[in-house]
């Protein structure tokens, strides 16, 4: 029997953007308020899992043609790269700094190098979660 | 004559909204215990629980906006999100129950999906 998932799929199309926007918000909010790379990555991964539930694995693989193991590796490389970058300035491994910059539209923002490390955490969390889900979900 | 400031009056209104939300939540819980089958229960659990969460979140939003002077878009986003997703969750649970053969309450007299389900079985 062909199942009719039109309510779930239509709702997913709307809700997916709310979840993704909120995950980005939480990711950038993590320096001064609750949030950060881990929870933002988990929320992005859960949005993609919702897409997998409403549609199917092949559809998601067509939309996001990444190998998520490579995403994990890229996240680890970014994290290590931010650690190694501190050697360029002659300070110990993983030293962090921040400064204030003025942007044309956004105004004055605080940019910290901890954000780059958080991008690594984000990519690792998304990659690991989706690798686990895809490996469990697909048929042998 | 009792004189109230703006904050006290709005605090009273916010208290009423939050109390209404919690009472609706209690009614939803009672409905979950008292109703006979899964379809009436999901009716109670999705409708009144959604409205109770919306009331409580709206009271929270008003509290932070009026009294604490902090407009939180996250709460509005939460209201929209719960309003969209909770009925869909109830729909999916009821549909999964129907397709896995959970029987209706014995006093139910009408089952519109029954004929359609048989027709789909014979056609496929």
TrEMBL record, chain A:
Coiled coil recorded as keyword: no
Keywords of the record: Cell membrane, Membrane, Transmembrane, Transmembrane helix
Localization terms from the record: Cell membrane
InterPro entries: CPA3_antiporter_subunitB (IPR050622), MnhB (IPR007182)
Record's bilayer topology term: Multi-pass membrane protein
Main subcellular location of this protein, as a coarse class: membrane
Taxonomy, superkingdom: Bacteria
Cellular component aspect of the GO annotation: plasma membrane
Domain Na+/H+ antiporter MnhB subunit-related protein: 7-131
Membrane spanning residue stretches: 12-31, 37-58, 70-91, 111-133
Entry-linked NCBIfam families: PRK12573.1 (NF009223)
Family recorded in the similarity comment: Belongs to the CPA3 antiporters (TC 2.A.63) subunit B family.
Protein name: Multisubunit sodium/proton antiporter, MrpB subunit
